């Protein structure tokens, strides 16, 4: 209830501010203008109610029949390169147009409140915090009834446990907008300069460390690892799974109820990565990287051997890198070789005036044309389909690259948790490890912080029953 009251308080403040602005505008209808930052040239949204639910079940012609009113769907998103996908959606549903509402570092709940207060509510949103808070504030729809009748989603095969990280109390609160895999980016020129061959796909964490040492040459300003938080954010918690020290990413236990970040095995993993800085010299601390002009913070500079990358780095690398690069899967540990993937939650907002039309944008993500487009950008497929699997070998994205590593990353991927874990935003796994690995914070501070959060998340979980 506290979160609900907080959200309504934000809405009230925004409404009050808009009334004041309207009164000061001299009757120019400033308060009724669209609050969208987008310069969409699409026709205005229809004021009529959304079509009956049954109309959203069929093909595009069933929804956008001749004479259908045009609908503009407001989509709150970080995606600044997705215009081609919006166009594909419009081709499939000619009466529907996506208008992106940029996030611009503003909390998404505030954007939702602002649009609600303006009388132009958003329809669909990406999620920037835990889904629990969005559900408690009544902001997102349960997708279960929509999914159960949708022909697209009923016609595809999804991986086992596909909705697990986005389901709360039997409610499916979101679908993945995109499945973002992680890889180790490799500077092949720096390998060759040091007389090294491209590592095999079954390389180990010991191999990873040795390669990093051999590519380090401080006199030339060259280092084994890029100075980026991604190494502790992605690689370290994946290593904990690979070595049997944790069951899930971010050091979570099997049922995602407790953190094991304070246990001896994980603490040893943290010490292992810290030694890249303090012992091997293959990874610069934040202070050292700054002192050297921040050159080692960007893999594309060509001064570092390894980096962690996802689909967002690929276009720039393909366009601008002045060296030969490739990808490798995350290394093998003592018991397994897991990978790391991120689901970007995509939710239908309860304040939408066009829910059935808006759900079509969610459903469209699982069509073959959308899946292939995302593969072209470097993402994983979200559906299991032989045609989609074969497309990996056809896409220009991976021509001439280590395609087998891409397959391994997809097959071995472990999904990043968090969106339905109570109190996830208060779990300080990220900042504290940054301060330890790249700074001088005491590793022992992990123990009381983790114990305190474990207690807090259990208490919050009890309130949700």
Automatic annotation (TrEMBL):
Superkingdom: Bacteria
Gene3D superfamilies according to UniProt: Periplasmic binding protein-like II
Pfam families for this protein: SBP_bac_1
Listed InterPro entries: Bact_solute-bd_prot1, SBP
Keywords carried by this UniProt record: Signal
Region described as Disordered: 29-61
Signal peptide: 1-23
Name the record gives this protein: ABC transporter substrate-binding protein
Organism annotation: Cohnella cellulosilytica
